[in-house]
Design a protein that fits this description.
heterodimer; A: 476 residues; alpha+beta; Uridine Diphospho-n-acetylenolpyruvylglucosamine Reductase, domain 2; Uridine Diphospho-n-acetylenolpyruvylglucosamine Reductase, domain 3; Vanillyl-alcohol Oxidase, Chain A, domain 3; globular; B: 442 residues; alpha/beta; Fumarate Reductase Iron-sulfur Protein, Chain B, domain 2; Rossmann fold; 5-stranded mixed beta sheet; 4-stranded parallel beta sheet; 25 helices; 9 strands; 54% helix; electron transport (chain B)
């Protein structure tokens, strides 16, 4: 059922055209279909209208209009997200940020960069590195994703272990609110305790509170040097133990990535960079900083890996080879998709000390429900990506996949972890959110949502589930 | 406008004929987006991206949407450069999906009698018939030699055509006389030590309009130690048909070519046109449903190599001294040679081996120049936008020669040079012609 009657829809369209211009409003079938999905499998819904505003003021005006007409708003960057946050489940409008794609200022005195939300993440990273500065958050989709999407999802990446995630680099925002107001939060300030931390309320709010129309990001000096090693294992738990041992030895590498054999094979099949496909697991480890310290750390990490039964430890011979390895790792999810028609990826995260236990639990769950799960991920920060290789057309198997993931979530929480480390709650984890936050925690979230978006127009159907999932296993 | 019965038929055929597993193989990660020239040029319009186009095809196959003219337009705007394929971690065979979708749309298109006749003329009567290709290009040659071309330009006859076509007319190479084309032998002996016997896929356009480039290719192969055969009865590769939704005709051409080259029994089949080679290498896919042909097609495909690859494999650049006057030289990849044949290092190795020239890598050399087969004729606006952006990058290299490895790209580069009013400063050349010019002691 369409949300709006034809008459109301035509009126809405005319009003949107008045705000954003005829060429930026599209209600053709194909124009709507191509914004009906994101990178999350099995979610698709057509919006009624697609609109691409050109300024923050236009964004605010559109939100005001949508508030008045109870029109759902789904904000979209490049549509790479993995929890169906950009899928317009309840129709309404898709708000494209493609015109708001300018880098506004690189402030070399305060070490900040101010950007519009539609800017591609990698453009920011490349630009600042030319100035020997560094923007560390590097989600695997950074070549495609927009910074606005990263902010809304509080994206992580391969460098999270040492440098943290998107939220750690946001200093100030401009946000359009559902009532049509534009507000500014934060500033180019290291210290700022004036009022609630609204900046970090909007970061990670998954488009459910407002639309970020500008952001000032913190930059740090670019590390002097970098080294990459690969540690190879014939026992995946040994790889998990190595991760915990490295951290326990007070080593904090930039990147500490885990790939199991399925993932290694799929990635090698795509990238052809000579990854060893005959081992059960690989750790990809990167350290950066002053050269002497990098050498010392890498030497020590290699020793720890050997002590935990790594069968081989290899050093990348050049910066190009190191970059190839990181790029190959970034392709892991999509490369796994070549193995089966449907790839369902999750994001369960545990304290780093529990990595080996989590790896074991995932293997047991896969066995129990007879599903194929490959695992890769940012093991160093406890953020694993168990990925189920399945076929959406096989209903029976899909049910088992759902049960398997429910049990993985349960296990992660039991180990002191969380449902999602960096992909967001969206639709896929909404029914489980209460497991993590509890009833009272959910009430706080609902209160905030109600205060800012009383008409519920911002990304409806996400984060807050219509019906919470019952816990399958009681916590011991 | 599509009628509702046409829409129904198209929808049914999408359901029945599209490779649904391949459609599902796209997991919509978007890794293809930055590689797609039309996505970039349209300011990030998803309907002009590979992910968007696949979603549209799947949307029709799923019955989620009806096909319409907008959808057809989205598929038409695709260059078919296949730059999205090597960057796709899931390994989606986008080119195959595009061909299948275009075939269904083409089959259901109502066309005016004129367009039908023209298509029939081009696809059935002209490109599959080498004798006619020779005649037509012979006419172009007559037009050029007779002075008619000068007259036509003077009286502004060409102004009646779209701007790109009119400029294109200026840059066509000089076509040799038909008698010259006819007299060329079909066998050439190797020079020096014999290393291989190769059969040249001469190509319909290459062997007429670019006859001299074929001769240069033969010369290089001989010098590299190859006996060169030019099998009779070979025809157009069928790419133009395949890309325009005429797959059945492509299949007929494929079978005839396979037969023609089986008779030659060469070690390798050599092409000097990236566009043709990318289609030839798909013959096994094209004929996969015909058991009596699929093995033969595989055998054919296994022998296929681009001229630059075999030259490098036979150490041509190490055994021959290459030299040109001091100048800057750059290279524009043929999309199909790069993305499908995976040949992109070899041309650079050869060009860098030329003494005296300074090779400067062209920024964005791996993205399409806008030629894309007949794209510059059917989608002139987008093609010219892409080309003009390309020429800005070429200007940044300060190159005096821009080298390509495919006739379409070559013409497009010549067109770009002409549009930028640089025909006195910059030459666009096929790599085979550059190498022959660089051969010392010739």
């Amino acid at each position: 059922m369409p949300l709006h009657s034809e008459k109301r829809l035509n009126k809405l369209k005319a009003q949107l055209i008045e705000i954003a211009g005829n060429e930026n409003v599209d209600d053709t079938t194909s124009g709507r279909l191509v914004y009906s999905y994101d990178a999350t499998p099995n979610f698709q819904a057509l919006p009624e209208i697609v609109v691409a505003p050109r300024t923050a003021e236009e964004v605010a005006a559109i939100l005001k209009l949508c508030g008045e007409t109870s029109t759902p708003v789904y904000t979209r960057g490049s549509g790479t997200n993995l929890c169906a946050d950009t899928c317009p489940l309840k129709g309404g409008i898709v708000l494209l940020m493609k015109h708001l794609n300018k880098i506004l200022e690189l402030d070399r005195e305060n070490l900040t960069i101010t950007v519009q939300p539609g800017t591609i993440t990698k453009e920011i990273s490349d630009l600042v590195e030319k100035d020997d500065l560094f923007y560390p958050p590097d989600p695997s989709s950074m070549k495609i994703s927009t910074i606005g999407g990263n902010l809304a999802e509080n994206s992580g990446g391969l460098r999270g272990l040492k440098y943290g995630v998107t939220k750690d680099y946001v200093m100030a925002l401009q946000v359009a609110l559902p009532n049509g107001e534009l507000i500014r939060t934060g500033g180019k300030l290291t210290k700022d305790v004036a009022g609630y931390d609204l900046t970090h309320l909007f970061v990670g709010s998954e488009g459910t509170l407002g639309v970020i129309t500008e952001a000032t990001l913190k930059l740090i000096p670019k590390p002097e040097s970098q080294k990459t090693i690969l540690a190879l294992y014939q026992d995946i738990e040994a790889a998990g133990r190595s991760v915990s041992a490295i951290i326990a030895h007070k080593m904090i590498p930039v990147t500490l990535e885990f790939l199991d054999q399925d993932t290694i094979k799929a990635v090698e099949d795509f990238a052809h960079i000579g990854l060893p496909t005959n081992v059960k697991a690989i750790l990809l480890i990167v350290q950066d900083g002053p050269k002497e310290i990098v050498d010392r750390d890498i030497h020590k990490i290699a020793e720890i890996c050997r002590g935990e039964q790594a069968v081989d430890v290899r050093l990348a011979s050049s910066a190009e080879e190191a970059e190839e390895l990181a790029t190959a790792r970034r392709s892991a999810l999509s490369a796994l998709a070549r193995l089966k028609p449907t790839t369902i990826l999750e994001d369960a995260t545990v304290p780093r000390s529990e990595i080996a236990a989590m790896v074991r639990a995932i293997a047991e769950v896969a066995q129990k429900y007879q599903v194929r799960i490959s695992t890769f991920g940012h093991a160093g920060d406890g953020n694993l990506h168990p990925t189920c290789l399945t076929d959406a057309r096989d209903e029976d198997e899909m049910n088992r996949v759902e049960e398997a993931f429910a049990e993985i979530f349960e296990k992660a929480i039991e180990l002191g972890g969380t449902l999602t480390g960096e992909h967001g709650v969206g639709v896929t984890k909404a029914p489980y959110l209460e497991w993590k936050l509890g009833k009272a925690g959910m009430e706080v979230m609902r209160g905030i949502k109600q205060a800012i978006d009383p008409n519920g127009i911002m990304n409806p159907g996400k984060v807050f589930a219509d019906k919470a999932k019952q816990r399958m296993v009681t916590v011991k | 406008m599509m009628t509702s019965s046409e829409k129904k038929t198209i929808q049914k055929e999408f359901k029945e004929e599209m490779d649904y597993d391949e459609l599902l193989n796209c997991m919509r990660c978007g890794f293809c987006l930055p590689s797609c020239p039309t996505y970039i040029e349209t300011g990030h319009q998803e309907k002009h991206s590979p992910r968007g186009r696949i979603a549209l095809m799947k949307g029709v196959a799923d019955g989620l949407i009806e096909p319409d003219d907008d959808l057809a337009h989205s598929l038409d705007v695709c260059l078919g450069c296949r730059a999205c394929e090597p960057v796709c971690p899931s390994g989606v065979q986008y080119g195959h999906l595009l061909e299948d979708a275009r075939t269904i749309l083409q089959r259901n298109k109502r066309q005016t009698v004129g367009v039908k006749m023209l298509r029939k003329g081009i696809f059935d009567e002209l490109f599959p018939r080498q004798d006619r290709m020779e005649k037509v290009t012979g006419l172009i040659g007559f037009y050029q030699r007779s002075g008619l071309s000068k007259v036509a330009r003077k009286v502004g006859f060409m102004n009646l055509f779209p701007e790109s076509m009119a400029t294109m007319e200026k840059v066509l190479p000089e076509v040799p006389k038909r008698s010259v084309m006819k007299q060329r032998p079909r066998f050439f002996e190797h020079e020096g030590e014999k290393k291989a016997t190769v059969a040249l896929f001469a190509g319909c356009l290459m062997d007429t309009m670019f006859f001299d480039t074929n001769n240069a290719t033969i010369k290089l192969l001989r010098k590299a130690g190859c006996d060169v055969l030019i099998p009779e009865n070979q025809l157009c590769c069928g790419a133009l048909h395949g890309h325009n939704g005429e797959l059945e005709k492509s299949k007929q051409l494929a079978k005839q070519n396979i037969e023609a080259f089986e008779a030659a029994e060469a070690d390798y089949i050599i092409t000097n046109a990236g566009g043709c080679s990318a289609f030839l290498i798909d013959y096994d896919h094209l004929l996969k449903d015909e058991p009596e042909w699929s093995e033969r097609a595989k055998h054919f495909v296994g022998k296929l190599k681009d001229i630059s690859r075999i030259l490098v494999e036979l150490d041509f650049q190490k055994t021959h001294r290459l030299q040109l006057p001091d100048q800057i030289i750059t290279y524009q990849d043929s999309c199909h040679l790069r993305n499908v044949m995976k040949t992109f290092n070899e041309p650079r190795i050869l060009l860098k081996a030329i003494e005296g020239v300074h090779f400067v890598e062209l920024e964005g050399a791996d993205t399409c120049c806008g030629s894309a087969g007949d794209y510059n004729i059917v989608q002139p606006e987008m093609a010219m936008q892409i080309l003009d952006h390309k020429m800005e990058k070429v200007a940044d290299t300060c190159a005096q020669i821009i080298v390509t490895a495919n006739p379409g790209c070559l013409l497009e580069m010549k067109l770009g040079v002409e549009r930028a009013h640089k025909s006195n400063e910059v030459r666009a050349m096929h790599i085979a012609d550059v190498l022959v010019e660089a051969l010392v002691n010739e």
